[in-house]
């Protein structure tokens, strides 16, 4: 018996919602949201926003960028040549993955921003005390900064994130599917993103609606111990 042809889904991409109203607030991230909303009344020139990969740091930083009309640079791209250009722009700045930035340029950027009264939002996977900073002047400045953490997601946040991820892909999902996944998956934003993408692809390939049996099949395939 010849198996029916399977449609190969084309990855056309999707646009995640990054506005303030789309950011999901629970106990795990309420403190971080409070600090973002408190700007420009920060007690120091910069704030460190730390949390595990996929915790929502980039989303929350994008909210602050819109609020503060801030620029953006990835920490690994920050070098001596970039610092004057960034300071001359005269704007607040987000430094993503600041813990991976070269120390000397980061120090110059901090000092120049403080002199110009331009705020910095530094995101990192780890609190600044655990960056292993070797440059004493930079270490002392980082030590003085407030650090706010986005904590690992709780069940209400994972539940809400799943709904948002499905909505970003324009998929209407029954509540029982979200409840099923929330009860069984690892509490991780990265896992949530991977699951939703795989469920979307599986539904498209099989011409099926997203149901609990389909979600169970995908979960067992990706994470056998959790399905």
UniProtKB/TrEMBL annotation:
What's the name of the protein? Answer: Regulatory inactivation of DnaA Hda protein
InterPro entries reported for this sequence: Hda_lid (IPR055199), P-loop_NTPase (IPR027417)
Q: Secretion signal: which residues?
A: none
Q: Which domain of life is it from?
A: Bacteria
Q: Name one GO biological process term.
A: DNA replication initiation
Domain Hda lid: start-end pairs: 167-219
One Pfam family of this chain:
Hda_lid
Q: Which GO terms describe its cellular component?
A: plasma membrane
């Amino acid at each position: 018996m010849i198996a029916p042809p399977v449609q190969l889904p084309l990855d056309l991409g999707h646009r995640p919602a990054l506005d303030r109203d789309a950011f999901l607030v629970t106990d795990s991230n309420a403190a971080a949201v409070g600090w973002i909303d408190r700007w420009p009344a920060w007690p120091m020139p910069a704030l460190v926003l730390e949390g595990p990969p996929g915790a929502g740091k980039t989303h929350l930083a994008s909210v602050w960028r819109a609020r503060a009309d801030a620029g953006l640079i990835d920490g690994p791209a920050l070098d001596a040549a970039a610092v004057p250009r960034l300071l001359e722009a005269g704007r607040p700045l987000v430094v993503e993955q600041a813990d991976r930035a070269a120390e000397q340029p980061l120090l110059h950027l901090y000092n120049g921003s403080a002199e110009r009264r331009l705020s910095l939002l530094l995101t990192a996977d780890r609190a600044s005390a655990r960056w292993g900073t070797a440059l004493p002047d930079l270490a002392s400045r980082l030590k003085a900064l407030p650090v706010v953490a986005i904590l690992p997601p709780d069940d209400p946040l994972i539940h809400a994130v799943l709904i948002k991820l499905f909505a970003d892909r324009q998929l209407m999902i029954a509540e029982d599917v979200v409840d099923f996944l929330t009860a069984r998956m690892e509490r991780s934003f990265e896992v949530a993103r991977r699951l939703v993408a795989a469920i979307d692809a599986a539904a498209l390939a099989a011409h099926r609606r997203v149901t609990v049996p389909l979600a169970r099949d995908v979960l067992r395939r990706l994470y056998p111990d959790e399905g």
